[in-house]
Amino acid sequence: MAHGRPGLTGALATAALPLGFLAVFFLWPVVAIVRLGLGPGVGAVLSSPDTWSIVGFTLGQAAAATAVAVLTGLPVAFLLARTSLWGNGFVRAAVMVPFVLPTVVVGLAFRSLFGDGGPLAIILANAFFNVAVVARTVAALWSHVDRRAEDAARSLGASRWRTFFSVTLPVLRPAISSSAAVVFLFCATSFGVVLLLGGGEYATLETEIYLRTVQLFDLTGAAALSMLQLASVVAVLVIGAILRRRSTALRLRGRADTARRPVGGEWGIVAAAWGVVVALMVPIVSLVAKSFESGLDGYRAIGGTGFRGSLQVTGWEAVLNSLRAATDATWLALLLGVLTCVALVTLGRTRARPSLIETIDTAMMLPLGVSAVTVGFGYLITLDALPGDLRTSPLLVPLAQALVVTPLVIRTLLPVLRSIDDRLRQAAATLGAAPWQVWREVDIPLAARSFLAATAFAYAVALGEFGATSFLARPESATLPVVIGRLVARPGELNNQLAYASCTLLMLVTVAIVIAVDRLRVGSVGEF
């Protein structure tokens, strides 16, 4: 205990950089845009039936998509956690592909299936994104649940379903609830999917903030909606943090190596899981087929600027812009994410107040749920106060992307670092290793594969980021997702084919990254 205070001081110093970045590049822009928009009209916006109709649709579609994601994710979680079958590696990679696909890719994929979209398409598309969150989060806990209690219930005459609901489900409930909270957050703040599938008729808080800020310049209305969104996000993050803590505590008490060959009715669950995997492939196959409707015309057009010069960059220039921005965003997110994880793990070892740990953790998750448009517009009215006027800097897009990616890095690395046996650290310290040497010799080697997985995930998500990038990217530096969004909104069959071909190209890169992550085989890769 003599080292508790120095450890606490060092952890807080380590957390200072990511928290400072959060304050400057997130809290300051958000507060600025809200303050700018606050005025006498806020009350009218909050009391408007149209506002609450948008709130109702936002929460309704998010709840429906979450329910679909949970129901379809549970059979997949069983397959990954409880069975030892050929093909499980493919399933593990296949369910992760939708999670890291760019929203514009998924939006176009579902447009190819549903035409003009609508509520059902929005719900299914959001669920499509998030099946992996449920499957892998629940599987991570389920694989450590002792089978003996289930076997005892079965030997006493309980049916398979009664055993699941009476014995297994209560143990899995924290993981299910935690993943559902995360899925609900992702669905409630969905932007690209609703923008492409809403058809101008259906709007969520996110798309309405975009409309009021960019097209109507209604800062008062956008600020009011941003406050509603921020309040709901904070509530969901707090609930998710509490449930994550309970899930982790239960996981540490379980036993591993529970996978075996299915027996009896378990084969029905396996069939259901494979049915989910096939369903996840349908939009992807539809998208690829759509890109070849006119032969290779769409792919040839990637070297041009679309129908009658619709774009200011060629498709290949947009690819290079995407790669550069994603690279910058990834290394910055890794720096911030690793420092945050080190601070949180160190605080846990020093037995700091749980409220302090949860506050830092929740603060770093906030960018996941606040409108990217709000942050982007806030950049344009605040960052001129910093040296160099970042508003005209090519780093503006990577900065915004890093905000979105950093929480995913934290959620991937933090559970792995927390699970490392503390006795290994104590043994290294007993042999005279300094704290930084303990990290170098123990933590870093054991977490190296998860770090590589976090890097790949961060790069894939940054590569396909659409919300903030669509607002901040200049026409001459547009990334591939932004180019796709602009092509979809402009007339011309060539633009349509170019958009589908570009989506297919972006999807192939994403799939390659997911396969690389799966090759690392780092278990459930954190919480995702």
UniProtKB/TrEMBL annotation:
Gene3D superfamilies: MetI-like
Topological relation to the membrane, as annotated: Multi-pass membrane protein
Subcellular location: Cell inner membrane; Cell membrane
Keyword DNA damage: no
Domain of life assignment: Bacteria
GO-annotated cellular components: plasma membrane
Ligase among keywords: no
Sorted UniProt keywords: Cell inner membrane, Cell membrane, Membrane, Transmembrane, Transmembrane helix, Transport
Ranges for domain ABC transmembrane type-1: 55-238, 319-517
Spans through the membrane: 12-34, 54-81, 93-114, 120-142, 180-199, 219-243, 264-289, 329-348, 360-383, 395-417, 450-473, 498-517
Biological processes annotated in GO: transmembrane transport
Family the UniProt entry places it in: Belongs to the binding-protein-dependent transport system permease family.
Protein's name in the database: ABC transporter permease
